[in-house]
Amino acid sequence: MIDNELETLLSVLESENRCRRIPAQGHSDMVDLCSNDYLGLGQRSIEWREEFLYRFPDAAMTSSASRLLSRRQYHHLLLEDRLEALYRRPALLFNSGYHANVGCIGALNLPSTLFVTDRLIHASAIDGLRTCGAEFVRFRHNDMEHLERVLTAKGKDFRHIVVMVESVYSMDGDLAPLDSLVRLKQKDNRIILYVDEAHGVGVFGEQGLGLCEQTACLDRIDLIVGTAGKALASAGAYVICSSVMKRWLLNSARSFIFSTALPPACCAWTLLMLEKMTVMHTERNHLRNLWQWLGTQLGQVAHSQILPYLTGDAAKALTLADRLHTAGLDVLPIRRPTVPPGGERLRLSLNALLTEADLFPLIAILSDKNK
């Protein structure tokens, strides 16, 4: 019986303190330090419910078909048009960041293409590479010298080289050296620069378009993947690229072609959240000040709204998370395989609704020598 074998495998996970479960519904009075609602749009969504219903009364709850077969395209096209106006480049919607990465990687896997990825690139990108059988090699995290050595050693026989990074790394919260990557791309016209902005959108840039906007690289990066499921408090994702690339993805990204399209209501909500997000300058400044302050309190350099607190042990991460939960702080432990062995941690995810006072109990517990 397969269930018996699965029970044995699950018991191993239990013994290693890394058997996962869906968290229970949180309490409204808990301090949220685990979600990706970076601007607090999700927590404030009720404020815009009436506006949404007034502006988009006809937004259906289902597309009932893929984008290529559905007649319900109005709200999808509205959202893509708005994204294109902001980024000044074509945009294509996907159902999620996972769909976007898997689909785009498969579409880019042309003959004589090498993918070179940061070692800490998201699992969806790794799955995309493996699914389409791409040839790929990793370079040490944020190590430009190692990247250049890899390109010299491995890239000479390829016609296309796709360099893949995240703008803000989801577990460590540090930033990709986009300026250096752009300069490297300018030296070799075979390089296609692919940046996953999942955790940068909303947080960085004057309009919240991400680290690519903040570093003035928007027009020099071939593919930018953004998500609506984090700071934008919605669902779905989008790819910013050239017009030719958009046409190619539309015709070859299997996750786009063969998935039922996002519900029109979801696209309409994303459009509304995008309008709110682009003008939330005060919230972005507050969030930046907050992560810098918390980093100082914890004795570490904070690069973004994501701060890791390493425990190096799954049991310690679970125990500490439970202690924080008792104190009213919602923090979840991160364990293998999300992070490598020894990388077990708490992932502190800040949002713009938090204050320094909200974080005083966190600092006290994490600073406790007897924890």
Description:
The protein has 371 residues and is α/β, with parallel strands linked by helices. It is globular. A seven-stranded mixed beta sheet has the order 2-8-7-6-5-3-4, with helices on both faces. A three-stranded antiparallel beta sheet has the order 9-12-11. Helix 8 links the parallel strand 6 and strand 7.
Q: Order of helices and strands, N to C?
A: HEHHEHEHEHEHEHEEHHHHEHEEEH
Low-confidence stretches: none
| Helix percentage range | 40-55%
* Coarse shape: globular
SS field, number of helical segments: 14
Which class of secondary structure composition applies to the elements? alpha/beta
Which helices and strands, and how do they pair?
Blueprint: H1 2-15, E1 31-32, H2 49-55, H3 74-87, E2 91-94, H4 97-108, E3 113-118, H5 123-131, E4 135-139, H6 144-154, E5 160-166, H7 178-187, E6 191-196, H8 211-214, E7 223-227, E8 237-240, H9 243-252, H10 254-257, H11 264-278, H12 281-298, E9 306-310, H13 314-326, E10 329-330, E11 333-334, E12 345-349, H14 356-366
Parallel strand pairs: 1-10, 3-4, 3-5, 5-6, 6-7
Antiparallel strand pairs: 2-8, 7-8, 9-12, 11-12
Helix pairs in contact: 3-11, 4-5, 12-14
